[in-house]
Design a protein that fits this description.
Length: 622
């Protein structure tokens, strides 16, 4: 019995010893797990601190890049020529072939090499921060598309980030509708002031200073719908029209005596945009002796003289008929902008680009590629110069032709037996003469039945335009530009394909009327373009004539900018209703060589992050 008890006690003791071993193992295991958890938590906390620091540098670097964009924008707004400053050797600028006539102007933000300084981002209290930026400029599209591309790189610590911004002016093509004066052009309407002096009305006073007895105020009617931003330097009269975007006016909006308009948002007060006094400087874009043209991809544009008919063919070409043209590209007395025109460009190159003169003067015209991202300028016949001076190469009186053009010879009317006009032909088919007198054009009018003075001058710089346009180009006329039919973009059009139409004295919607007061052309008209008349107006020909059933809708997909407001119809039904829509492509692209206000502001149209351009030491990243 005693032996059995001892045996059992011995076994129990061994069991307790084994359990103590198990407990020790468990304690050690738990301790290890706890230590691992603590170590993990410490690692996570340490990593979190590093991530937080990295995130801070990451965010500060992009903020510094945006600060660089803001700095460049401010410099452009202070000096509208700042697009000519930059560093052509910077990789971003060199890749686009950008040139800078004014150098870097002492701005360290144009530095591009390793070890060169960056510009420190200022803090709210004016002290420096640990963030900085530098930038490079691509101005290769400034002339052709009105866009400056800016590459801005921000730095914080060892982190750098880069954004690409498109910067463009707040110009006329940014608005669906812009006017300087909300009254008719007195040179078109022949309105006169009721003063003893008999001065033309509406030329020196805005609507708030004018009276209805001296100046006709044109209104937006109840059938008018404007789908885009509207702006005027004058008071706008709205009688029930619908505005689907912003309305800005330096002198407010009125609905006195008529129905209140319908607005997407309340109209606001704005500053003034001043149209340029002339577009004559655009002629320089057709010169072959200026670095501003020869140093670009698009080169010199095309110059035509006198009445010129242009039809866009929808296949990358246009057909041009210009009987008075002698040479299509020119040179100056000196290779400087604005110099007197004294010579011709290379005849062979000009013929290839702008058409052979013999073809231009023929009945069928010359079919040529549209000068993409360039300008077509139609000028008045140059005046004769004093004896002993070099004549203009496009002056008929001074040319080797030694005679006036056929269009300017003979007596009026010289239009044939079916003519219904007192005018003579301008050489390109205007005034229009149909197969009968009933289908022929009478003398055109504007305003309250007032005849237009010299509407189709035989030696005037008038452009007559229609067709389907599929390349970015601007047509500029020194005198009038007529829209003779629909002008449309194709359905396959790219966003950068934007058309500019400029008529310095007026852009006319051609609307011929026959002797029976009936319209000759079908109803409705569509114009896809940015339209500008810097000294005149955008107006429908014969807008007070024709049936009260009207001419349908005048559709404009683009923008309209004019010094004076032009009428398109009457409340009684004659003329057109408005269907104006802003072309969103104009928010990003400007038509080639399109004039800007005399003073403008620049805005950032878009900005996106791109591949980093420089490392923290300032070395370019390949």
């Amino acid at each position: 019995m005693i032996r059995l008890l001892r045996s059992r006690l011995s076994v129990a003791a061994r069991v307790r010893d084994d359990e103590r071993g198990f407990a020790l193992v468990a304690v050690v295991g738990i301790g290890t797990v706890v230590m691992l958890l603590v170590a993990t938590m410490v690692a996570i906390a340490t990593s979190g601190a590093r991530v937080t620091s990295t995130d801070r540098a990451w965010n500060r670097a992009i903020a510094a890049a945006y600060a660089g964009v803001a700095d460049y924008q401010a410099r452009l707004n202070a000096d509208n020529t700042y697009g000519n400053y930059g560093q052509s050797s910077a990789p971003f600028s060199a890749a686009s072939g950008s040139t800078f006539t004014k150098g870097v102007g002492g701005n360290p933000a144009f530095n591009y090499q390793s070890g060169q300084s960056w510009v420190t981002v200022p803090t709210g209290d004016g002290t420096g921060s640990d963030s900085s930026y530098r930038y490079a400029v691509d101005n290769s599209k400034l002339s052709s598309q009105g866009v400056i591309r800016l590459q801005s790189t921000g730095r914080s610590g060892t982190t750098t980030r880069t954004v690409i911004a498109n910067v463009r002016p707040d110009g006329f093509s940014n608005y669906l509708y812009f006017t300087n004066y909300e009254s008719g052009d007195p040179t078109v309407t022949n309105e006169k002031a009721s003063t003893a002096l008999g001065a033309p009305a509406c030329t020196t006073a805005y609507r708030t200073s004018a009276t209805s007895s001296t100046c006709d105020q044109i209104q937006f009617g109840s059938n008018d719908v404007l789908e885009g931003p509207v702006r005027s330097n004058d008071q706008i009269k709205v009688c029930g029209a619908q505005f689907k975007s912003t309305v800005q006016s330096a002198l407010g909006v009125t609905s006195s005596g008529c129905a209140v308009g319908r607005y997407a948002s309340n109209p606001t007060t704005s500053s003034t945009l001043v149209p340029p006094a002339t577009i004559g400087n655009l002629r320089d874009s057709t010169r072959t002796d200026l670095p501003a043209t020869t140093g670009t991809v698009e080169g010199a544009g095309c110059l035509y003289t006198g009445p010129t008919k242009i039809t866009f063919n929808g296949n990358g070409t246009m057909t041009v008929r210009s009987p008075m043209t002698i040479t299509t590209q020119v040179t100056g007395a000196t290779p400087t902008a604005g110099a007197q025109i004294t010579g011709s460009g290379d005849p062979s190159a000009a013929a290839t680009k702008c058409g052979a003169v013999t073809a231009l003067r023929s009945a069928t015209g010359a079919t040529i590629p549209i000068p993409k991202n360039n300008i077509v300028y139609v000028q008045n016949e140059p005046s004769a110069r004093p004896t002993g001076t070099t004549p203009d190469p496009n002056s008929w009186n001074d040319s080797t032709m030694k005679s006036t053009p056929t269009a300017c010879s003979g007596t009026a009317p010289s239009m044939g037996s079916n003519s219904a006009t007192s005018l003579k032909s301008n050489g390109v088919g205007f005034p229009y003469v149909g197969s009968t007198t009933a289908t022929s054009e009478t003398d055109p009018t504007a305003g309250a039945g007032t005849a237009v003075t010299n509407p189709y001058g035989c030696d005037r710089g008038d452009a007559f335009v229609q067709g389907t346009v599929d390349k970015a180009v601007t047509i500029a006329a020194e005198n009038y530009l007529y829209v003779t039919g629909d002008i449309r973009y194709p359905t396959t059009r790219s966003a950068s394909t934007v058309l500019g139409l400029i008529g310095q004295r007026a852009v006319w919607v051609w609307n011929p009327i026959n002797p029976n007061n009936g319209a000759i052309l079908p109803s409705d008209r569509e114009i896809d373009a940015a339209i500008l008349s810097n000294t005149g107006t955008f107006v429908v020909q014969n807008w007070t004539r024709g049936s009260t059933a009207g001419r349908g809708t005048l559709t404009v997909n683009g923008s309209i900018a004019q010094n004076f407001r032009g009428a398109v119809g009457l409340a009684s039904g004659q003329g057109y209703d408005k269907g104006y829509r802003f072309d969103s492509s104009l928010s990003t692209y400007t038509p080639p060589k399109f004039p800007q206000p005399t003073v403008t502001t620049y805005r950032v149209a878009s900005q996106v992050e791109s591949k980093t351009a420089y490392d923290a030491n300032g070395a370019p990243v390949s």
